[in-house]
Here is the input.
Amino acid sequence: MSLKVSKLSKKFGKNQIINQYDFSVTSDEITIVLGESGSGKTTLLRMINNLETVDEGSIELDGTFLVKDGQYQSAATIKEYQQKIGLVFQDYQLFPNLTVLENLLLAPLSNKYDSRDNLLEKAKSLLNQMGIEGKEDVKPYQLSGGQKQRVAIARAMMMNPSLLCFDEPTSALDDKTVSKVAELILQLKAQGMMILIITHDRTLVELLGNQAKVVESVDFV
Ligand SMILES: Nc1ncnc2c1ncn2[C@@H]1O[C@H](COP(=O)(O)OP(=O)(O)OP(=O)(O)O)[C@@H](O)[C@H]1O
Here is the structure.
């Protein structure tokens, strides 16, 4: 199981953000892309999640290519790729008018990923695992920042991704919650999840310690 990014390049106008960059993620260690604002971390994560196009290069997850030598694959292959990847956004991006449970069910139900009963069971078990049982019927505004993030993680895990991506997971959280997030990420890793984190938070890097490898975003170009 691995994410392999090879010879990836991206420009915005004349501004080369990423140049012929190789990089990989496995379940053996959490991969952290560390770097200052503006260095291209978000752009890299967005390309891996098919939210931004690449100029050149390949992105492959567990043998399924999103893009190969700059050529995007068929819609069916891209769908298969996207089901294997979950993203937890920096601002969580929960649907504000839906309950916690509805937030988890929306995408897998509309993708006909499984029966409603099975998905309900899965959602409840993930919420349990995240320590937010009992909040199924509340709306996101009734949750703390840390709880919203746990809902976002549970939502990202509904379709059993093999890779879970985090965009600046600690930027909106206080120190105590940061330690809890680090613990949760370590738990997910222990369960065999591949994890990619982009951050500028060196405290988080320290908390993840020897379970993580750090990639510096200054090396993109
Ligand atoms: N859609 C876009 N069009 C033009 N330039 C862009 C676009 N998106 C990002 N950039 C530029 O690309 C560079 C890298 O941005 P990016 O957001 O990837 O950096 P970052 O390291 O994630 O920073 P931050 O932590 O502030 O999000 C910046 O100079 C930014 O202005």
